């Protein structure tokens, strides 16, 4: 299970597998709105929408 640092951590989380702190990667609101429209005719559309709506990471959705 990953642990979070304090709120002023710059968006870091602990990766147990790699045994180091990694930066969180987040989209801006504009990016989050544009991605589903861009992928609308792609086979990835549903995957992207579910990921954005649930907040699940891609590696979590693959399992």
Automatic annotation (TrEMBL):
Domain of life: Bacteria
Protein name: Integrase
Source species: Planobispora siamensis
Lineage, broadest ranks: Bacteria, Bacillati, Actinomycetota, Actinomycetes, Streptosporangiales
